[in-house]
Amino acid sequence: MSGDIKKLTAAELRPLSRRGLLRNGAALGASLAGGSLVGGAMFPRAAYATSTVNVECDAGQNQNPFRWQADAIKQKFGIELNHIGLPFVGQYEKLVSELTARSSAYDLLVFPPYFLGDFVALGFLRDLDQYKSLVDPQLDDYLPVYRDPVIKRNGKLYALMYDGDNLQVIYRTDLFNDPTEQKNFKAKYGWDLAPPKTWDQFMQIAEFFTRPPNLYGTAFYAQRGFCYAWFINIFAGMGGRWFSDDMKPGINSEAGVKALEMLVRQKQYSPPNILQIGYPELNDAFLNGSTAMVVQWNDLPLKVGDPKMSKVVGKGGVAPIPVRTYMPYSRVMAVSAFSKNPEDAYRVAAYMQLPEVTITYVYDSNCGQDPYRVSSLKWEAATKNHEGGPALDPDLAKAYVETIKDGLKDGYPELSIPGAPRYLDILDLYVSQALAGTLPAKAALDAAANEWNSITQAEDPDSQRAAYAAWVKSFKDVGVAY
Amino acid sequence: MLSPALHPRRRARDGARRLGWWMMAPTLAVLAANSIFPLLYAVTVSFKNYQILIPVPHRWVGFANYGKIFSDHLFWSSLGVTMWFVAGVVFLQFPLGMGLALLLHRLRRFQDVLVTLLLIPTIVSSAVAGFQWVQLFNYAFGPINYLLGLLHLGRPTWTADPALALPALIFVDLWQWTPFMTLLLFAGLRSLPGSVVEAARMDGSTVWQIVWRIYLPLLRPIIGIALILRVLMTFKLFDIIYVLTAGGPGTVTENLAFFTYVQGFRYFNLGYASALAILQLIVVSILAKALIQLTKRSGIGGREAAA
C-alpha cells in the first residue's frame, strides 16, 4: 500500500535537528559495530525514528488506518506512532478531563466535529494554519460539506478530516427484486416496491417486510448514545431546524414531534430487542439477514460484501436517506494545544488525509472511515479492501458512490457550536425516554427544549446566537441549504 | 497556685502531650489532605457556578445549585430509582443471606468449600460481572433466553425493557452481594455461644423459636453492620449500572450516583454535581444513623430477650 503513496517533497519532510543527527550517527555507528549491514541494503530509516506522536482515537477499527500507515509514516518522517484508544462512548468526558488538566498525553486528537465548538472555545486545539507549509493538506479536494463548516472555526483551520460520515438506507436487493414480493407489495400499497423516497414510503416498506420472528422490516440505533441521530435524520427531511435565528429550539416543533412519533412507530417493525440496538447490533441486524432495510452509517455497505462478517453477500443495496441525508458524527484530526510535538502531530494528520492515503482506507471494511474527498469518489476503489479482499461488488460500489454524491449535495449538518455535546446528549436522553415509552414524544421534546434553553442561557445567549449564525452561514457559503 | 514541686511533673505531662501531637501529625496531615480537604473543596464548589465547559469566571451562587436540585425532575426520578433499588436489594438480600447462613451453619461438612464458592461473585470485579450479565441477558444469544425458549416462556429483552431493567439490576446485585451478607451472618452465627442454643433445644424450642428468639437478637450488631454496609453500597452503586444499562432505557435505571456522574463528567457542571454529592452524603448519613437507631431498638428483640 505504501508503494502507491507519492513521495513527499523535501520541505514536507521533517528537518533533521543537530541532536537527531548525533542520535542517528550513533545509531549508524552501533549498526556498523554490530555488523548489521548486509550487502548494499543499509538499515531502513524506520530503525531510527526520531520522535513519537501520541495518537488518540476511539478504540477499535477506527485506529486501523493509523496502524496500516505507521511504517510509511516512520519511513517518511521518522515519526513513531503511539496508538491510544479511548472508549467510543465516554470519549468526550475523557478528553475534556485530560485537556482541562493541560495533559500532554495526546499530540494528535481524533474526535467527532461536534466536539470542535467546545474544544476551540476552551483553547484545547492549535490553529493549524501555521503548519500548512509543512504538508499541504489539499483542502480544495474536500467535499464542500466537509470543508469549512466542519474543520474551520472563526475562519481558522483547527482540524483535518479523517472520516466522512453520513446515514444511508441499506436494503436487501433479493427481497426488493423478488417478483412475488413486488406483486404483493403493489397490491397492498398501490405503488412499486423500491427504495423509499419519502418517510411514509419507508414506513410502508418496513411494515410490509415485518414477519417475525425471522424477518423484520427495519431496525435503528435505539440505544442511549446516538438514538438522537435517527430522530434528526427524519426531522431533517420534515424541514426541521436545530434552532430558529433567535436561538429558540426547533426540536419540539411540529416537524420534531411528527418525526419522533414516526421513530417510535418504527419500533413495531423492528426486532423485539430494538432498545438494545446500537452501532454493532444494527450492523448485525442487517448482516445476519434478519432485517429487510436499515438506516445506518455509510460504512455498513462496505461490510455487506465481506463473507467474514456478512450472511447477505451480494444481497445488499444502498440508497440515499428519504428527502434529506443527515451527517452525524464523522471524525476529524486536530493537534492538542498541550502537545510537546505539534509539528510532527500535524505532519501525521496531514499525511493521513492526503488523497493518495485516504483512498487506501475509506472503502475498507476493516475500518470505519468513509470518503470525504472528491477524488475518493471512485467506485473502482470501493471494490477492494485493505487486505485486497472483496469489499463491494461493482453494482453496489457504483450505487454506494452515487448515494454519497447525491446525499451530500445538501447533507444535513450535525450541530457543532459551543455546547453541542450537551445539546445532543440531552436530546438523546429524551429521545431514549420516548423510545422507552416513559414519555410521550411531545413531552419528551418539550423537556429537551427546556434543557436546551438552559444550556443556551448558561453559555451566554448572545455568543451562542452569534456562533450558531456563523455556523449556519458556513454551510450556506458552500451551497448547502439550511 | 501550684506548688513548685508539681512543676516538673506538669512539664513532663505537657511534653508527653506535645510529643503525642507530633507523632499524630503525619497521620492527621494525610487525613486532612485525603479526606477533609476534598470534602471541604466539594462543599465550596457546590456554592459556585463551576462549569468547566463554559469559559466564564467562577463566582459564588449561594444555594442556587441546591435550589436547582429540588426543581430538577431528573433528580427526583433518579432518587426514586435509588430508593427502589436500595429497598429491593436490601429487603431481598437480608432474608436470602440469613437463610443461606443458617443452612451453612447447620452443615457439618464442606462449610469452608461452600463459603469459598459462595464468595466468587463478590470477588469478581463489577466491570467483569457487568459484562458477564450483558452476555447472559442478551436477547438473541444469551443462555437465559435460550433456556426460557426451551420452556416456551418467551424471550424477554431484560435490560432493554423499561419494566424489567431495574429488576434485572436488582437480580444482578443479589447475585453478586448476597454471598457477602451470608458470610457476615455466618461468621456471626459461628461466634455465638453453643450452650445457649443447646439449652433452648433441651427446653423444647422449635427451630423457628431458636432463630427468632436467640439467633436474631444475638446477631443484632452483625445484622446492623451488614444492613448499613449494604444500604450504603447500593445507594452509591455505579459500576454495574454503567456497564449493564448506562442508566437506560431512557432513565429507568439512572440512580443518583449515575445522575451525579452525568452532571459532573458528561456535562462538567461541577458546581451542580458537587451539590448533588453533598446532598447524597447528607441523605446517606441520615439513612445510616436511622439504621443504627433501628437496629438498636428493633423489633428483632433486645439483649434481654436473649438472656
Overview of this protein structure:
The complex is a heterodimer of chains A (482) and B (307). Chain A is α/β, with parallel strands linked by helices and 482 residues long. In chain A, β4 and β5 (156-157) form a beta hairpin. In chain A, the strands form 4 sheets. A 5-stranded mixed beta sheet of chain A has the order 2-1-3-11-6. The longest helix of chain A is centred in the C-terminal third of the chain and has 19 residues, at 441-459. Helices cover 41% and strands 11% of the residues of chain A. Helix content of chain B is 73%, strand content 0%. Chain B has 14 helices and no strands. Chains A and B meet through α3, α16 and α17 of A and loops of B.
Q: Number of folding domains of chain B?
A: 2
Total of helices of chain B: 14
Give helix % range of chain A. 40-55%
| Uncertain regions spanning at least 5 consecutive residues of chain A | 1-47
Q: What is the helix tally of chain A?
A: 18
SSE-based structural type of chain B: mainly alpha
Alpha-carbon Rg of chain B, integer: 26 Å
Average residue pLDDT of chain A: 88
Please count the beta strands of chain A (DSSP E, at least 2 residues each). Answer: 12
Report the portion of residues of chain B in β strands. Answer: under 5%
Strand % of chain A is 5-15%
Strand order of the largest sheet of chain A: 2-1-3-11-6
What secondary-structure arrangement, pairings included, does this model have?
The complex is a heterodimer of chains A (about 475) and B (about 300).
Chain A: H1 18-33, E1 51-58, H2 64-77, E2 79-86, H3 91-100, E3 108-111, H4 116-121, H5 148-151, E4 152-153, E5 156-157, E6 160-163, E7 167-172, H6 173-176, H7 179-189, H8 199-208, H9 227-237, H10 254-266, H11 279-287, E8 293-297, H12 300-304, E9 316-319, E10 326-327, E11 331-335, H13 342-352, H14 355-361, H15 394-409, E12 412-413, H16 420-436, H17 441-459, H18 461-477
Parallel strand pairs in A: 1-2, 1-3, 10-12
Antiparallel strand pairs in A: 3-11, 4-5, 6-11, 7-8, 7-9
Chain B: H1 7-45, H2 64-70, H3 73-106, H4 111-123, H5 126-136, H6 143-150, H7 165-191, H8 194-202, H9 207-218, H10 220-235, H11 239-244, H12 256-266, H13 270-296, H14 303-306
Helix pairs in contact in B: 2-13, 3-7, 3-10, 3-12, 4-7, 7-10, 10-13, 12-13
